[in-house]
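Dear Dr. H.,

I hope your travels went smoothly. While you were away I took the liberty of generating a structure for the chain from your last submission, since the lab meeting agenda had it listed for discussion. I wanted you to have the full record in hand beforehand rather than looking at slides cold. The sequence, exactly as received, is reproduced here:
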Amino acid sequence: MDSITLLEATTGQGIAALGAGVAALGAGVGIGRIGGSALESIARQPEAAGDIRANMILTAALVEGAAFFAMVVGLLVVLN
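The corresponding predicted structure, in token form, is as follows:
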């Protein structure tokens, strides 16, 4: 992607591209925190590992879905 020009910034295309990038970055950070917290929880209560793992996977999928939706909306704004 080229650098954001003043015209793109004033029409909202640059902002949409920035939003798509932030969504991807936020998803990566969020999933990393989910995984780290799940590992800490499993270390504290190993007998609950199955429940924690299932909840971790479900939460990570929801975060990834929301980020994917945000990136698609941002790209649609940029392309239109």
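Two observations you may find useful: The helical segments are 6-11, 13-44, 49-79. The chain has a mean pLDDT of 82.

With kind regards,
E. W.
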